[in-house]
Specification:
By secondary structure, this protein is α/β, with parallel strands linked by helices. It contains eight helices and eleven strands. Helix content is about 35%, strand content about 35%.
Length: about 240
């Protein structure tokens, strides 16, 4: 079973990434609005939407948001959070490698490094093509990915934390062009182990895939504040338009 099948829908994922909150979602959607300048009530597809925090922020701003994710548990949590917020968002279980539709969306977002999971690079390129297929001609894509040079320069090999009574140990390493993580979560009775593995696609790698998919890159940012991308930037955020 691929690591992502069991990890994202687990309660342990929420413990590890609880610092990724609504404030961060607002910051990245601010950037999306700044560069893509969506029309009011634009149709936006959130690919790899997880528990829906970016979709919810899009809907709060008046956009017609749709979220897809491979994790059934995450989709159920997203639906609950949306109902609690009094919003209307379509959430579906879906594989990013399969087109959600053909030309039905004004924009697509793929945020918080929800990419590079697959062992075969062709599968990642297939995901880019699927996102492009969902866009109408002239539609836009904003993809938020890690910056490999920054990952290599700042990698913390091990850290620990205690959250909600659980002890969390994370170990990280780089091998075979991927950044790997082992997460051990000890609740005092049992220790569960999870893994992450993300392909270190460079900006050039992504731009080449975009070109083959029929996307024209307009801007590349280095962080959610809209700063220009550089080797030391923490993020690689691409804004592109379907040609």
């Amino acid at each position: 079973m691929p690591w992502y099948d069991s990890w994202f829908g687990s309660d342990a994922y929420e413990l590890v990434y609880r610092h990724r909150d609504a404030d961060e979602a607002r910051a990245v959607i601010d950037l999306v609005e700044s560069c893509a300048q969506p029309q009011p009530v634009a149709r936006v597809l959130d690919v790899g939407c997880g528990r829906g925090r970016h979709s919810i922020e899009l809907a709060r701003r008046g956009y017609e948001a749709t979220g897809i994710d491979l994790s059934e548990a995450s989709i159920e949590e997203a639906r609950t959070a949306t109902a609690d917020a009094g919003l209307e968002i379509t959430f579906n279980v879906g594989d990013m490698r399969e087109p959600y539709c053909e030309g039905c969306m004004d924009g697509v977002v793929n945020l918080f490094t929800t990419f590079g999971y697959f062992q075969d690079d062709d599968e990642s390129e297939r995901a880019i093509r699927a996102m492009t297929t969902a866009l109408r001609p002239g539609g836009w894509l904003v993809q938020d990915f890690l910056n490999p040079s920054h990952v290599r320069a700042t990698l913390v090999e091990e850290d620990t934390a205690r959250r909600n009574g659980a002890h969390i140990r994370q170990r990280r390493w780089i091998d075979d062009g991927r950044v790997h993580k082992r997460i051990d979560v000890d609740d005092g009775e049992t220790t569960r182990t999870f893994r992450e593995s993300v392909r270190l696609f460079t900006r050039a790698d992504l731009e080449a895939m975009y070109d083959r998919a029929g996307l024209s890159v307009k801007e590349v940012f280095g962080d959610y504040d809209g700063s220009p991308h550089s080797e030391s930037s923490p993020r690689t955020i691409l804004y592109a338009v379907r040609t």
